[in-house]
Amino acid sequence: MRVRDAYGTAIHEASHAVIARRLHLRVDHVTLTPPKGYAGLCSVVVSNLAARRRPVLLLTLAGPWAEGRHLHLPGGVLPEGSDSDWNAAVTLARALAGAEWKLALSTGFKAVAQLLGEPEVQAKVKAVAMELLDRRVLTGAEVDEVYRGAHFR
């Protein structure tokens, strides 16, 4: 993985983790050494998906939004179909809004842009991403420590 790719992937996965924490979901772990076919992985524990679809939709959209911004892509989001998060987001949006699923995605992206646009959230994403680049894998407890401002360095 090139350095820029590694940092972009770390930003992508850190954004999932930080938004999950912000929305009171539990992060199990985040890794840059995931199963084959993935560049990175953020595992979040969701005990009642039916009741938590909107927060899960937002955390799913956070990675493509943040990485797209990092890469300065037109429209600022990773292109549709280039990321497995898109499939999950469309499935969640359809479950939330039925025929209005495209509106649910658009509304979700606006909410993610607002959340990830907050300076405090940006700082947390960068801190988690930098720690992830150093350690390659973070447990949920380690993500929580970085999120709260503790540092391993």
From TrEMBL:
A molecular function annotated in GO for this UniProt entry is: metalloendopeptidase activity
This protein is called Peptidase M41 domain-containing protein
- For this chain's UniProt record, which GO biological process terms are given? proteolysis
Q: Which domain of life is it from?
A: Bacteria
This protein's species is Intrasporangium oryzae NRRL B-24470
